[in-house]
Amino acid sequence: MISRIPIAPLTRSTMEASPSMYYSNGNYEAFARPRKPQGVDQKSAHLIGGGVASLAAAAFPISDGQMAGSRITVYEASSITGGCLDGIKDPVEGYLSRSEREMEDHYECMWDLYRSIASLDVEGASVLDDFYRINKD
Amino acid sequence: MVRNYDRINAQPPEGINEKRAHILGGGIAGLAAAAFLVDDAHMPGTNVTVYEASGTTGGAMDAAGDAETGYKPRGHRELHASHECLWYLCGKVPSIHTPGATVLEETYDVNVREPIRSNFRLMARQGERHEVTGPLMSAEDGRKMLDLWLTPEEDLDGITLGDWFSPEFFNSVYWLCWSTMFAFWPYHSVMEARRYMLRYADLTGSNVGALEGILHPKYNEYHSFTLPLHKWLESQGVKFRTSTSVTDIVVSEQGGETVATGVTLRDADGEHRLQLTRDDLVFFTNGSIVQNATQADTTTVATLNRDTADRGVFTVWEKLAARDPRFGNPAAFLSDVDKTNFYTFMATITGDRTFHDHMEAKTGSKGSTGGMLSVVDSNWKLNLLPLGKYHPDQPADVHVLHGYGQLSGVPGNHVEKPMRECTGAEVLAEVLYHCGLKGKIAAILEHSKVHTAALPYITSQFMPRKTSDRPKVIPDGCVNLAFLGQYVELPDDVVFTVETSVRTAMMAVWGLTGLEKPMVPMPQPYYDVRVLADNVKMMTGTDITADTLHTLVEGGSGREATDSEAPTPAPTR
């Protein structure tokens, strides 16, 4: 019965990801910080696993949810966070990395995260700024 | 498409500390240029000066007057969520009304709580609803509309809306809703209209009467946008010289490049010449929709200013253009005040809720949330905008109504005079008549202060034109001169929006400083198949369903595909 389905109208309801969440559609929504969620000062966050998913889930409550960082704990089985986003320089074995990932310029959530994380290499730049310049050159 | 990947902070362009910016014109375009120079291009704020002919910045985004004597803005602008450059700017500027919030956040918040949605878009017969359902236009005009969408812009030089559509199009529901949103008239440019239809295709499709997606400021445009931006720029060290007008700009050719070498300014002490080098960046707003505006009050009449010898920045633009065709052709826009003027009004009503209660009951909308209401059988072509809290200091018993009449030269339906010969009181009497309050005119007038404004050039940017009639933001060869505002050629963009001004400022700053940062892309809703389907519905009255697509794909080729006609395999890499 697919032929009976109209092409989706552009209404908010079709854009909803959950009752309280909706997609942004440009600078108007992306650049406005949300109001502080009710009760966020009484909430705590427990992040099980310390890969990039968890680290991102720890960053967004601070940058967007206005939760105090001290209320957030990340638990990680290994001794180092980052999961498979790894990179070690071992004095004996040389550089160690278990694998490699491809990035692209439409990783909207990833770049939203990294535009607010300071680069460790370039003073005054975000990780996004640094990444962008390297890939432009 | 706006991407998070492009939200970078650019490095300071080479030599930016040694450069100075001279911003000629303190409207929103000039203020935005100052903000982008300081915040994005890393120019020290003290190197930036804004020159403004009038006593205040903000240009058309104004809000003079007070509750006692009546508010007197000259106009009103519609804002939309797709105004990417404007919201980028507003995201930088601290609000002066909402502690801890930016101007964007303040605007966002008020529109979440008080969204605009019109339930009563068109009015006729003294206060009755004029239905917006049914076919929006005839089948013939639907075909002409589709033709227009598919005709390249270069084939539309000098053509008007009246040339393109049938006479009955101008009585269609679509025209009544669409033309009044943007202030188009049949003698305006079909090229400009086409840009609007494409740029705002997600707003003006089959649901054109709903006004969904139009946004409003917390208060008026001056207190919500201009003043916070002005104060923030001051805190960054930017200098303002008001009551200082530009009278000429001198450019010279130097080794194949065009350099602005001098600017003549006039203030209370007389004329001064600024000598410029390549390190002096000039940002010139070459036109103003409120140029030569005149204002009047409840008992006086605003005279339409027809002077052509002194029309401020337009005169400076005329001098520049006379010397070099790259600077455009102002005559295309400025030659017919009878066609480019309209009149606005603002009624401030104190201690009498009759009008606002009457309209709320009629429209079901409170405050500003009903958006614009157009009176289709008004000789003056009146458009009304009941507003909520307009001014931060507005007392609770003061209510305001803003509006404009598209035709100032024909007698009214109740007041037997053209709008341009009327006092503020007479204008309000005509408005009240159309709203079905004929019997209450005298009583409401007793509580009202009305200000009117005559705007000779308010729709001049819509006059039939060629692409070359407007200068580019940075004309070819110019190294330190950029044009800002509504009389500048921006590929694909419309004119007569705040966004246009801010976008020209962004392009000018990125371009003249050599900033290594991508421009915010133009919204292109017409590449979204859902928007296209909705606009086909607007033109034809027919829902586009998956059935339609099946018909196109299967029926369009006139036969069924068979196995023997399997597509050729793609070459291997």
Write a structural description.
Chain A is 27% helix and 14% strand. Chain A is an alpha+beta fold. In chain A, strands 1-2 form a two-stranded antiparallel sheet. In chain A, strands 3-4 form a two-stranded parallel ribbon. Residues 1-6 and 8-17 of chain A have low confidence and may be disordered. Chain B is globular. Chain B has an eight-stranded mixed β-sheet with strand order 7-6-16-17-18-15-19-14, with helices on both faces. With 573 residues, chain B is of the alpha/beta class. In chain B, a hairpin with a 6-residue loop joins strand 16 (373-375) and strand 17. At the A-B interface, helix 2, helix 4 and helix 5 of A face helix 2, helix 3, helix 16 and helix 17 of B.
Give structural attributes.
heterodimer, A: 137 residues, alpha+beta, two-stranded antiparallel sheet, 5 helices, 27% helix, 14% strand, B: 573 residues, alpha/beta, eight-stranded mixed sheet, five-stranded parallel sheet, 17 helices
